[in-house]
């Protein structure tokens, strides 16, 4: 054994005198034939290695195997001391073996460092990460998993979903993991989770298999992102888009410089302009000219002061027809208060105005003859009296029957 193994072996007697050694030991401690019967303490040790004769002595005296890690400046060794006793009376000693663990320790250190880095990445990740064996038992969960499910890792590891989560969720997770194992490829899912008291969450999950070198699945890893708020925001956007497109009122959205960004279909129905004809232009293309500069100045002053304006305005269709509309303008600011958009919502009130005119006409005229009635006569009489009082003049009233 001494001549065939590649690590240092030495044999000493009870007086700690060197009796035998192999070539690796000779190379490490600079031993030669003259070293036989020399005390271990006199060996030339590698730089940085601590003398170990005391450990050898203690092992011989106690007759117990001893192991100790020793270091030189460059290498790390496992010192193994095995005491022996021959059939010859009083012949005792120890076999000293030095196993070079340097590469192994470096590899272990690298593995440990990589593991610590990986754990740090996973535990500081905003994703929910879990690792399961083929039976569905948890092997690892990260901090985000604990926070999302409200479970400590100590109560999850070694257990299946059926033991820690609602049955419906557990069955859903297991079915998806079985698909991953069967297909041996990563799959993307949207997980719809309903907890107690109706609490609802949505996860965007990627499940993928961990494979051995020969392609055998040994674990399933799941990485999930909580997209509940994002999904709700998307639903709100879809709802807002549906309301925007199907609203019976015309809607126009501009940027901070009043350039039109988008309009809805009601805008086109009222004004006659298609979206591509107005996007990028100013809303002034609709101006009828019936309002003067003071009107618009008052409107913009109100917008800047209160963030909104509402009132009746006359605009012009693409055909050139002037029509009345009821317009509401709102200012949209970002969280810092900076102006982002103007949103105008308007209704064509031509029918309303016509109905109002008819009501006013019928209130002061005979429905059959369209002649002025008593109400209009009394209104005009009151106006004549007021005028006469102001001017100091007189007037006459003449009544003629049919």
Question: Would you kindly provide a written description of the structure presented here, covering whatever features stand out?
Answer:
The chain is of the alpha+beta class. Helix content is 36%, strand content 28%. The chain has twelve helices and 15 strands. It has helices spanning 23-29, 53-62, 102-123, 143-149, 161-164, 167-183, 228-246, 265-271, 275-278, 293-306, 350-364, 374-391, and strands at 9-13, 18-21, 66-71, 76-85, 92-100, 128-132, 138-141, 187-194, 200-211, 217-226, 250-255, 260-263, 308-316, 322-333, 339-348. The strands form three sheets. Strands 2-1-5-4-3 form a five-stranded antiparallel beta sheet, sandwiched between helices. Strands 7-6-10-9-8 form a five-stranded antiparallel beta sheet, sandwiched between helices. It has a five-stranded antiparallel beta sheet with strand order 12-11-15-14-13. The protein is rod-shaped.
Summary?
The protein is an alpha+beta fold.
H-E order: EEHHEEEHEEHHHEEEHEEHHHEEEHH
Mean pLDDT: 89
Major sheet strand order: 2-1-5-4-3
What's the alpha carbon Rg, rounded to whole Å? 47 Å
Largest sheet: 5 strands, antiparallel
Distance between the terminal alpha carbons, to the nearest Å? 149 Å
- The helix-and-strand class reads alpha+beta
Helical element count?
12
Provide the fold topology.
Blueprint: E1 9-13, E2 18-21, H1 23-29, H2 53-62, E3 66-71, E4 76-85, E5 92-100, H3 102-123, E6 128-132, E7 138-141, H4 143-149, H5 161-164, H6 167-183, E8 187-194, E9 200-211, E10 217-226, H7 228-246, E11 250-255, E12 260-263, H8 265-271, H9 275-278, H10 293-306, E13 308-316, E14 322-333, E15 339-348, H11 350-364, H12 374-391
Antiparallel strand pairs: 1-2, 1-5, 3-4, 4-5, 6-7, 6-10, 8-9, 9-10, 11-12, 11-15, 13-14, 14-15
């Amino acid at each position: 054994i001494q001549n065939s193994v590649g690590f240092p072996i030495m044999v000493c007697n009870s007086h700690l005198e060197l009796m035998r050694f192999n070539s690796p030991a000779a190379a490490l401690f600079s031993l030669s034939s003259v070293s036989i019967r020399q005390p271990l303490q006199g060996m030339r040790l590698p730089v940085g290695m601590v003398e170990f004769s005391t450990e050898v002595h203690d092992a011989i005296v106690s007759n117990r195997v001893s192991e100790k890690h020793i270091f030189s400046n460059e290498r790390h060794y496992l010192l193994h001391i095995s005491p022996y006793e021959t059939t010859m009376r009083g012949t005792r000693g120890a076999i000293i073996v030095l196993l070079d663990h340097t590469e192994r320790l470096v590899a272990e250190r690298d593995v440990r460092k990589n593991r610590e880095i990986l754990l740090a990445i996973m535990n500081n990740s905003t994703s929910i990460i879990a690792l399961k064996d083929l039976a569905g038992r948890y092997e690892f969960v990260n901090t985000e998993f604990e926070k999302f499910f409200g479970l400590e890792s100590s109560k999850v590891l070694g257990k299946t979903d059926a033991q820690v989560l609602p049955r419906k969720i557990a069955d859903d997770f297991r079915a998806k993991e079985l698909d991953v194992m069967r297909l041996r490829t990563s799959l993307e899912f949207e997980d719809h989770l309903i907890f107690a008291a109706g609490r609802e969450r949505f996860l965007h999950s990627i499940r993928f298999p961990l494979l051995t070198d020969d392609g055998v699945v040994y674990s399933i890893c799941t990485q999930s992102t909580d997209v509940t708020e994002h999904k709700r925001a998307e639903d709100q956007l879809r709802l807002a888009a549906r309301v925007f497109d199907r609203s019976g009122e015309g809607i126009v959205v501009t940027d901070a410089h009043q350039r039109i960004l988008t309009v809805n279909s009601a805008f086109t129905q009222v004004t006659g302009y298609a979206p591509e004809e107005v996007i990028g232009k100013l809303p002034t293309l609709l101006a009828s000219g019936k309002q003067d500069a003071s009107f618009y100045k008052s409107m913009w002053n109100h917008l800047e002061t209160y963030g909104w304006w509402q009132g009746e305005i006359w605009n012009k269709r693409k055909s050139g027809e002037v029509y009345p509309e009821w317009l509401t303008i709102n200012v949209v600011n970002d969280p810092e208060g900076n102006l982002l958009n103007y949103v105008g919502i308007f209704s064509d009130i031509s029918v309303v105005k016509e109905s109002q005119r008819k009501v006013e006409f019928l209130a002061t005229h005979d429905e059959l003859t369209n002649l002025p009635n008593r109400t209009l006569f009394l209104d005009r009489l009151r106006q004549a009296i007021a005028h006469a009082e102001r001017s100091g003049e007189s007037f006459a009233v003449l009544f003629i029957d049919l």
